[in-house]
Structures are given as structure tokens and as C-alpha cells.
Amino acid sequence: MSDFPACPECQSTFTYHDGNLLVCPECGHEWSENDTGEVSQEPSYRDANGTPLADGDTVTVIKDLKIKGSSSVVKVGTKVKNIRLVEGDHDIDCKIDGIGAMKLKSEFVKKV
């Protein structure tokens, strides 16, 4: 039996550490545990370099990103101002000049 806390989603006792997160292999839930041992349910958003992101930050795209359903591309180095963080697979909502409203993954941006 491990000394890790049970999963807050499914109460499984088979949790394990993966980097700085605790992971449940049964339901796939990931969460962090702060220094006092309390479980934090608030998601943390980090850019490609591991820098924490917050609402209103300015980021730069680090890879050419094809836009689904269009022939347009978001080029490397494109600055995106005033991002909004949301839960989901694509965790950044933003507006890109010349393209419009988009959703981006935080792994393809870096904080300016």
C-alpha cells in the first residue's frame, strides 16, 4: 500500500507520483499536492518552458500551427496578447490579429 492519498475523483488507492503530480491509473485524474499535504484541485497552466501562465498574459507561438478547416497557418513568433485560460484539451482562448478567435494548447506557446 502506498503513502499517497486516495484519488479525489474515484477514491482509488492506487495513486502514484508522476513528476510533481499525483495520478490515478484507474480514472486518469491528475492533481497536485501542496507542502501541507492538502490536495489542490486548481489546475495549473504552464507554457512549453514550464513557466506558469495566468489570464491576461502575452505569449508567443513556438511552432507553425495549421488551422483546422482552413488553409491558414499561425506562424512561429506570432504574439498573442491577453490570453484567457480555460479547462479542456486546448487550454488557451485568444484572438489572433488577422485570424480571429482561436483556442491554443499551452504546450505550443511561451510566455513573453
TrEMBL record:
Concerning InterPro entries, the annotation shows: YjdM, YjdM_C, YjdM_N
Protein YjdM C-terminal domain: from which residue to which, for each copy? Answer: 46-112
SUPFAM superfamilies hit by this protein: Prokaryotic SH3-related domain, Zinc beta-ribbon
Q: Which residue intervals make up region (Disordered)? A: 33-52
One Pfam family of this protein, by short name?
Answer: YjdM
Residues annotated as domain Protein YjdM N-terminal: 4-32
Q: Which Gene3D superfamilies match?
A: 2.20.25.10, SH3 Domains
Family to which the UniProt record says this protein belongs: Belongs to the YjdM family.
Q: Which NCBIfam families match?
A: phnA
Protein's UniProt name: Alkylphosphonate utilization protein
